[in-house]
Amino acid sequence: MKKTLATTVPAALIALGLASVASAEIKIGASVSATGPAAFLGDPEAKTLEMLVEEINAKGGINGEKIELVLYDDGGDPNKARTFATRLIENDEVQAIIGGSTTGTSMSILSVAEDAEIPFISLAGAIDIVQPVKPYTFKTPHTDRMACQKIFEDMQKRGIETIGMISGTDGFGASMQAQCKDVAGEYGIKIAADETYDPKDADMTAQLTKIRNTEGVQAVLNPGFGQGPAIVTRNYRQLGIELPLYQSHGVASDGFIELAGKDAVEGVRLPGTALLVADLLAEDDPQKPVVMAYKTAYEERHNEPVSTFGGYAHDGFALLVDALTRAGSAEPEAIRDALEATSALVGTTGVYTMSAEDHLGLDLSAFRMLEVKGGTWSLVE
């Protein structure tokens, strides 16, 4: 599916993909998983990008130039993502790409973007996307390694030393599982049980029973995204396991609470962004104005709760707009150089400062440790 967007074109034509956008002077491409198993990621990302392009064009664009958004739906398929990335560069002639809702689609897009020397801002979590640093690839979510570190910090505070892990075998789950194993020792954490599940599995009671029966386990960590963590959470409660349960930032949304069930998810902790607790932020928190502005605009437009994942797209677009504004040019190399020079850009996910050695630009302080209380997100003090 392809959509092109410019504020000067009737919506009916845009929906048909037949719009003429001759007035647009800066072309931005996007490939997200708006449908399929990762639609909970890609749908709010697509809606966010469309909304933000309309907003900025209504204000006159960037340095007087309007933006055209060429948007494809890859359905979470890495092969489609690679095809769309090639099409965006060769046929649509975009100056930059935002997208890659999942680790798999991001890795496909970046391989094409790097070869073509087109800036790419990923919206996925795996550390492999930006480490080692690739010249034209950047990303907005915290890495899975950072999620492990934030979780282990919280476990240390609670006196937890021995844990069980149950991880999805998808790209994100497998990557975070490996990263957690790699850093656990730094926090004095022993992984006594290590189970996995396929993202399509409908029941994880066998794996959870093994973990429950493992001597010394004090908490359980579930690296994964999609429906898997929701099933794990429901099975966890059905088995009557009373140990603390931690999830990843891959399910940091109201949709996870609804899918798992409010009773089952009570007490679950995970590292998340300021966006999920916007109303609880201190008035002097530098992220509050940005978070509230995006939350208000999105929820008024779409009549649905804002999500962390839409926030990743918000920040990707903000990074690109900031880079284009400072570069004074829409040439891909100039955009790349400006992205790498990003300094103290406040987003919904954190405050970004990038460098030649860091194409993420966030530290652990940007993560907030959250806990579900009474069916909603609360801040862990």
TrEMBL record:
Keywords annotated in UniProt: Amino-acid transport, Signal, Transport
InterPro entries named in the record: BCAA_transport (IPR051010), Leu-bd (IPR028081), Leu_Ile_Val-bd (IPR000709), Peripla_BP_I (IPR028082)
Annotated Leucine-binding protein domain residues: 25-361
Signal peptide: 1-24
Residue stretches in coiled coil: none
Domain of life, source organism: Bacteria
Family named by the database record: Belongs to the leucine-binding protein family.
UniProt-recorded name of the protein: ABC transporter substrate-binding protein
Species per Swiss-Prot/TrEMBL record: Chelativorans intermedius
